[in-house]
Amino acid sequence: MRNTSVRFVAACTALALVAAACGKDRGTAATSTTVAATTTTAAATTTAAAATPTTKAASDTTVPGTPAPTTAATTPPTEAPKLPMFGDAPWPCGPGDGKNADTGSEPGVTATDIKIGDGDDAGYAAAPGLDHEMSDAMKAMVATCNDLGGINGRKITIDYHDAALFNIGPAMQAACDNKDFFLVGEGWAFDSNQEEIRLGCSLPAVPGYSVSAAFAHGKDVYEPVPNPSDETPSGIFEQMATLLPDAVKKVGTLAGNFSATQETRDKIVNVAPQFGWAFSETKLEYAAAGETDWTPFVKQLQAAGSTAVSWAGSCLPNLQLFAQAAKANGFNVPIITDTNHYEAKCAAANTDGALDNVYFRLSFVPFEEASVNKATQDFLDVMAKKGGDVAQLGAQSASAFLLWATAASSCGDTLTRACTLAALAATHAWTGHGLHAEGDPGGNHPPKCSMIMRIQGTKFVRVTPTAPGTFDCKDSWVSKVTGTPGLVAAKLDANRISQQFSGK
Prior knowledge:
CATH topology of the largest domain: Rossmann fold
Shape: globular
CATH class of the largest domain: Alpha Beta
Number of domains: 2
Oligomer: single chain
């Protein structure tokens, strides 16, 4: 076990080295007890064997000089052009050798083009633009990749699908009917409702996020920051117990009455007691479409003696409305929630201070700290150049795109789903080129590192650890989850692949 604050750089950026250097497959538990790479100052060297050699091999090779015709001397070796970098590794994009052998038989792929699917819930009427930052990031990343030559010379086009929260079935059917090569960087809150359709057309996915157990453990699904149902990142539980020990003694949960938030709540209730949490209320649920009056929920949590609230849902409008009702009724307790609340519009809406007690975890370096982390700055630069709104979920989509593009580019002149999936399965250490703490997409294991932020006024403030660009890490911060309804329904096989919609 270890507890360290670390500044992350990428590990295993060349897929040819990943399988040998980084771990085991999707059906085997991770055994690593250290982070992929660590620096203690900006000038420090990395400790991971894979990180520095991989980057150097890709970006600092030399070619022999040409012999001089009239002397025995040779001209000095000259460096090959350096590849464009994103974070601490090269972009997985380029013009290729012009020898692509694709025949058009692979869905979404020709010798000159690749069509991928993407989507969000932006059309949801109760929260217009919901998660649109994900598709904004995908547009920017794809445009930049195409500027660099595409995937081995193949230009990428995006087939966008708006699920509008409740229309996930038609969105997925459209992706199948349009023969998208992969889904990449998408995020749909009701992703369990897509799985029967997705599996029916054998459409692989590298999503920006997953929610349901069925999709998080789905066949041919590889997530850059995995969110499996049988494991959960648990650093936030210990960190909050250390920060606010009295607050976690009687935590009341509040989740939407739909699987996207119920499964999140169930994992918290299952694991948090290991870290000193106790619960006053675990069944309170609000309507998926929101509530006209949040005061009854505040009153029930007060009556239960709740000393904190564990919230599962979105910031706007629901959490803000609940927090305003809580403030109006003198219920001023910490609200502990998740990464999706790290979006500029959430903090900007806090003009009345009702959200000042909101705490959430991050496994990505915050945008406010881009000056100490190149990958974060590179992401912001791409978004500024290509246009689009910036949010945490957009960074997740950017990491998903880089993961998929790295795997696809390794296939060279003949691009297939099978080749890309094999490369993804062999990727056991992934940081999105330094955007976030290391996870294991190939093994479906989440990061063991965490930091806590909160909202104060209209700004986000780092709480712990305090040093910019760092996370606290422990091996014990990936906790096993057992017996939750979502996990049971997923029917995981021996390789942790869901059989819920397989007909078995």
